[in-house]
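Team,

Forwarding the record for the chain on the shared tracking sheet. I've put the sequence and predicted structure together so nobody has to dig through attachments.
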Amino acid sequence: MSLSPDPRRNVLLGLLPEDEFRRLEPALEVVPLDVREGLHEAGKAFEHVWFPVDAVLSVLATIEGEAAVEVATVGFEGMAGLPAFLGTAESPHDCYCQVAGSAVRLATGDLRRFLASDGALHDLLHRYTQATMVQLAQNVACNRLHTTEERCARWLLQTRDRVGADEFTLTQEFLAQMLGVRRGTVSLTAGVLQQAGMIRYTRGRITVVDADALHEAACECYDIVQAEYRRLAAAPEA
């Protein structure tokens, strides 16, 4: 079966040995995703896990009476639905498409059957779990210690990496959820970065104009998380 776009742009699928990927391929479905499209709902059973190709997914925690806050972002480096791999039947959080694009869908039943063979995917998902734990811990420190401008620069760089392009759509709503701030603060922060010549921001459309300057403006959390995902993508030690 030929899948387009290439699902192996996803790091986890791309690292599978060829024979293992071919066994899994018939169960994979490439799906186009729109902004705000829901993939998992808190308290509901996992039906699928998702391997983004060029879409960016947002995992959100919602407290009653409060705005949703992003707790994790998933791009081509990973998989949305990690609790299903860890044995959880129901999603603890909501998951939405943050930046439109494509993702590969795999039914949770097929995932469990495939993992029962104890192949490379099992090890890759364990390593991805570690990388996700680093991301979550770094997010806590980042939200506590770094300025809104530093955090915004970090998130924009990470989104650029995941989309694979300098220009992408990112709504104020999602950017506010990513940063844990109000929309008015997003407008002010994006304005600062735009005046500095790092980005252009018009009607939810972001263009990274000077990636090097944006990197300089970002907090060190960007490099820490990127290094962890590079370790994930590296060949495991013998």
